[in-house]
Amino acid sequence: MPNRYHLTQQELDELEYEHCHTSDQRYADRIKGVYLLGSGWPVGRAERIPILCDNARYYHTRLVKDYLANSRIELVFLPPYFPTALCPNLH
Q: The organism sits in which domain of life (predicted)?
């Protein structure tokens, strides 16, 4: 199955730089996921790839929505004020 999420070397370099310079671990994990997909990491044969997200504004931008419109990635949003005690792995 061909990888539909190929990123240019410049985009990969920018993601790597951002990953190394962020202090937010959740943001760093998201960057790493995009980096892996964009560098050819196999995604298998799943029809949809769910990504669990908080309700940060950048997930709701037109740029993100347009990019994901023709992909298998599906953003799944946590409810507002989701208590992390229910899902301790999300820290």
A: Bacteria
- Tokens 């507002």 locate to 80
Helix axes of 9-20 and 25-38: crossing angle, nearest 10 degrees: 160
With b for 16 or more beta-carbon neighbours within 10 A and e for fewer, the 34-50 pattern comes to: bbebbbeeeeeeeeeee
Per-residue pLDDT tens for 19-37?
888 888 888 888 888 888 7
Other beta carbons within 10 angstroms of residue 11's beta carbon come to 14
Cβ within 8 Å of residue 45, ≥6 positions away: 1
Instruction: Encode pLDDT of 67-81 as tens digits.
Output: 888 888 888 888 776
**Beta bridge partner(s), residue 51:** 75
Which tens digit of pLDDT belongs to each residue from 35-46?
A: 887 777 776 666
